Amino acid sequence: MKKLMTISIAALALSLAGSALAADTIKLGVAGPHSGDLASYGIPTVRAAELAVADINAAGGVLGKQVELLVEDDVCKPEIATNTASKLVSDGAVVVLGHICSGATKAALGIYNDAKIIVMSPSATNPALTQSGDYPNFYRTIASDDLQAKLGAEFAVNTLGAKKIAVIHDKGDYGKGYAEFAKAFLEKMDNAEVVLFEGVTPGAVDYSAIVQKIKHSGADAVIYGGYHPEASKIVTQMKKKKMDTYFVSDDGVKDETFIKVAGEFAEGVYASGPMDVSNLPLFQKALKEHKDKFGEDPGAFFKEGYAATVALMNAIEKAGSTEYAAIEAKLRSEYVDTPVGKISFDEKGDAIGVGFSMYKVIDGKYVEQK
Amino acid sequence: MEYFFELFLGGLTRGSIYALIALGYTMVYGIIELINFAHGEIYMIGAFTALIVASLLTMAGMDGMAVLALSMVVAIIYAGAYGLTIEKIAYKPLRQAPRLSPLISAIGMSIFLQNYVLLAQTSDFLPFPSLVPEFSFMEPYEHIFSSSELMIVVVTAVSMLVLTYLIKFTKMGKAMRASAQDRTMAMLAGINVNRIISTTFIIGSTLAAVGGVLIASHIGQINFYIGFIAGIKAFTAAVLGGIGSIPGAVLGSLVLGWTESFATGYVSSDYEDVFAFTLLVLILIFRPAGILGKTKTQKV
């Protein structure tokens, strides 16, 4: 009993020391796999945070204070991530950059939420993290797995003005996943209707039956989830049947081979793909900083990690305090320039302005649609 | 009603595609009771040959039906040569071997040819030009039934008639039928059975090449793997109709094409193959030899 007492007093003393220090610096927790076989996913984010924070500190810090990094390893394991989170909370992290893996992130979020700490991941793409509403303190600078489908659905309905939509997929993980998300989004919209939801067999000799079915369903637009070989066959047969139905698809179709194979029939097809950020000055700056300091190209999620650091620090600065509610309000209302583009966050925590763009085939090339 | 009619035509086209390939399977099986798994690859090689020839001719400034006709002729000759060579290399030395040996040899040949084309050409999909022009008289119906579909159906019908004539009314056809009935007896009667078998392979390959060219032109793309799935479906059709029977292969193909088309149209394309193969199972349960197949007693 006496021993326990000593430990708790020591812990108390430590945490007091922590809060005493917090007065001097803004503590940014960085959590992710920094050792083990998935370390290559976590290290680039640590480096990104170091580089971004060095810039911020050089410019005078946040709220007049220097930013300090608290780097903690979670090895991408949910059971360790909870310890990592407890440690960061007790060390006085104001906001947390991380975690990297969706599973570890989910496990850790509850602990941060109890402590009223905002968490921003550069890499956790699981749709439920933002959409389930179970993780109100979660944000991310990477597109959710279903964002492409959302883009496709909204583009078809809002931009192209389609009312009746046929959702077709190739029965594969990627294609069917995309199609199911697209269907769910369309069903939530009240000005659109899913008139057909079906899978086709990849590699089939001929797709005329499904094309007739699309025509018969009266769809104004087809949303297709899958890869380019089937897409080009379906598009070709649709065009040969003189249909003027819009064709909207995913990253699997946004491939040069699609245009090469479908030729003239590819004209006017829409496909979404990752936003091109290589021309952004901030991205080039971050890349150069990384090369100068580490002598190599950055790894996975570097630019997202950099963007998350910038976004978090910007929100704290704009909020003028480290209060949860104040930071939250600024994350949602302020747009900030980052290496992944000019971003803000929606009420669920997904970044607005990040992720995918819609491209249209014009004169044999994919042209980004603004 | 129009929808039904469209699906009917779609199924007819698809069935005709299967039929052109299935005829080769069934003819070879009829004569030497071998399932020539490399047959789908002949179809693929026919399409590739036509693509190469058509590209060259187009570059040389030709267009229209002339390109179609010329590339078709070259594809037929080339595929016929392949059929003959395959028979000589992979099957003839195994004529007296147990039945399983040529079957394995056929599978090996199929894999070899796929990989050969993969290495010699590319693994990517290649665009195939629409060789069949849009006929002006088809203009009002193009949205229901395109010119290339019409071409497929017509060519299949003509091939069927020519083939029937060949088998029923020529000396060679008579020899073929004799060889199919009893190879030893045919040999004793003075028929050069080896030549008949080679001829059968050439005819089957020719039809597959015709199919390859027309279908590639209809679909608009090819790669080294197209022969596999088309071959499996056509083989299914041949079994459905009664393997070894020529009208059976055509009927089986059409039934399969319609089943797939209507299943997609009225139920769901998710279950297209489920319906196709359920039908196969049902027919084999009630008519083990296929729709038009004859149950014959085992020759001793």
Kindly list the characteristics that best describe this protein:
heterodimer, A: 370 residues, alpha/beta, Rossmann fold, seven-stranded mixed β-sheet, 13 helices, B: 300 residues, mainly alpha, two-stranded antiparallel ribbon, 11 helices, 73% helix, 1% strand, globular
Short overview:
The complex is a heterodimer of chains A (370) and B (300). With 370 residues, chain A is an alpha/beta fold.
Tell me the layout of helices and strands.
The complex is a heterodimer of chains A (370) and B (300).
Chain A lengths: L1 H21 L2 E8 L6 H20 L7 E8 L4 H13 L4 E3 L4 H13 L3 E4 L6 H4 L6 E3 L6 H13 L4 E6 L3 H16 L4 E7 L8 H9 L4 E5 L2 H13 L5 E4 L6 H7 L7 E5 L6 H14 L7 H18 L4 H10 L2 E3 L2 E5 L5 E2 L3 E7 L2 E5 L1
Helix pairs in contact in A: 2-12, 3-4, 6-7, 9-10, 12-13
Chain B lengths: L1 H31 L6 H21 L5 H27 L8 H21 L5 E2 L19 H23 L1 H11 L1 H6 L4 H27 L1 E2 L3 H16 L4 H22 L4 H15 L14
Antiparallel strand pairs in B: 1-2
Written overview of the protein:
- The complex is a heterodimer of chains A (370) and B (300).
- Chain A has 370 residues and is α/β, with parallel strands linked by helices.
- Chain A is 46% helix and 20% strand.
- Chain A has helices spanning 2-22, 39-58, 78-90, 102-114, 128-131, 147-159, 173-188, 208-216, 228-240, 256-262, 281-294, 302-319, 324-333, and strands at residues 25-32, 66-73, 95-97, 118-121, 138-140, 164-169, 193-199, 221-225, 246-249, 270-274, 336-338, 341-345, 351-352, 356-362, 365-369.
- In chain A, the strands form 3 sheets. Chain A has a 7-stranded mixed beta sheet with strand order 7-6-8-9-10-14-15.
- Chain A is elongated and about 75 Å long.
- Residues 16-22 of chain A have low confidence and may be disordered.
- Chain B has 300 residues and is an all-alpha fold.
- In chain B, 73% of the residues lie in helices and 1% in strands.
- Chain B has helices at 2-32, 39-59, 65-91, 100-120, 147-169, 171-181, 183-188, 193-219, 226-241, 246-267, 272-286; strands at 126-127, 221-222.
- In chain B, strands 1-2 form a two-stranded antiparallel ribbon.
- In chain B, helix 2 (39-59) runs parallel beside helix 4 (100-120) and helix 5 packs across helix 6.
- Chain B is globular, with a radius of gyration of 19 Å.
- The A-B interface holds A 171, 198-201, 203-206, 208-210, 212-213, 215-216, 228-229, 232-233, 236-237, 240-243, 257, 260-263, 265 and B 3, 6-7, 10-11, 13-14, 17-18, 124-127, 142-144, 146, 148-149, 215, 218-221, 223, 225-226, 229-230, 233, 260-261, 264-265, 268-270, 272-273.
